[in-house]
Write a structure and sequence with these properties.
- With 282 residues, this protein is of the alpha/beta class.
- The chain is built from nine helices and 13 strands.
- A hairpin with a 2-residue loop joins strand 2 and strand 3.
- The two termini are 32 Å apart.
């Protein structure tokens, strides 16, 4: 079974679409029913075998680091009061033994490519994963599915992909590939950032999961500013070649928007109730 040693989480964004809540609370810590959004992403990375978690944060978001602080006093209080369910929930936020956490700062918002580059010093060896916590994917752990499909001999990148509405293609990186291929991992001729719908090569769009060859860091160091005046990860991936899009099995929720967060909360609530009923029936 393949595993992915390092996963980078770009979490430096200011969450302007979620104001005023994000004035005091990082969007990554907003709850999706009963669990912070970031915790879903961490759990997904661990399911892919990650042993090194790299959070690319911002100095104005100290709560990100605080979330991962082991709170022995709180755990002892919950245990003493017999609140075992709450204790288990708090303990779930502690990283397992053998998993390293690194927090680096992106002081200036220069794009996703720049955020990934900020994590280069802790990337280790071999391919690196990237998770954008805003994109919550429920169902089978997406990054684990991608890790199983990633072939370092033929792929320089593997990017989660889904169909989007024609009017939305200008919001995404869009793939140019043969979608009739039956495999979940599709080789792509091109990868274009935020194209105009009239010239977009398809409606198959990148969403927030990536597996990237180590060469991406050298390429990002030489990548100029692209769409929106930012250093685009899409441009670096296109320059690497060996591009592959991955059709994942789960359901994606855009939790960077208020409506998407509500939809995700209702989906998780349904999952939790189904699991509770299943346990109660045994």
């Amino acid at each position: 079974m393949r595993t992915l040693n390092t996963v980078i989480f770009p979490v430096a964004g200011l969450g302007t679409r979620m104001l005023p809540a994000t004035k005091v609370m990082p969007k990554e810590l907003l709850p999706v029913y009963d669990t912070p959004l970031l915790q879903f992403a961490i759990d997904e990375a661990l399911a892919a075998g990650a042993k090194r978690i790299v959070l690319v944060s911002h100095p104005d978001k100290p709560a990100i680091a605080e979330y991962f602080r082991h709170d022995a006093a709180l755990e002892a209080t919950l245990a003493e009061k017999g609140k075992h369910d709450l204790l288990a929930a708090v303990e779930a936020s502690n990283l397992p033994e053998g998993v390293d956490l690194h927090i680096v700062m992106q002081h200036e918002q220069l794009g996703l490519g720049h955020a990934v580059l900020c994590g280069a010093d802790y990337a280790g060896d071999g391919p690196v994963g990237v998770i954008l916590p805003d994109d919550l994917i429920l169902g089978a752990p997406c990054l684990a599915e991608m890790t199983a499909a990633y072939d370092p001999e033929t792929m320089n990148s593997l990017v989660a992909a889904q169909q989007v509405a024609p009017q939305h293609v200008s919001r995404y990186g869009i793939f140019d590939c043969d979608e009739s291929v039956r495999d979940d991992a599709l080789p792509c001729a091109r990868f274009v950032e935020k194209p105009d719908p009239s010239v977009a090569p398809s409606r198959l769009a990148a969403v927030g999961r990536y597996i990237l060859d180590q060469s991406v860091f050298d390429i990002l160091r030489g990548t100029g500013r692209g769409a929106g005046g930012e250093i685009q990860l899409t441009d670096a991936i296109a320059d690497m070649g060996g591009i592959h899009a991955f059709r994942f099995s789960g359901t994606r929720h855009d939790c960077g928007s208020k409506d998407g967060l509500v939809e995700a909360t209702l989906a998780v609530q349904k999952m939790r109730k189904r699991a509770h009923l299943s346990v109660a029936a045994k």
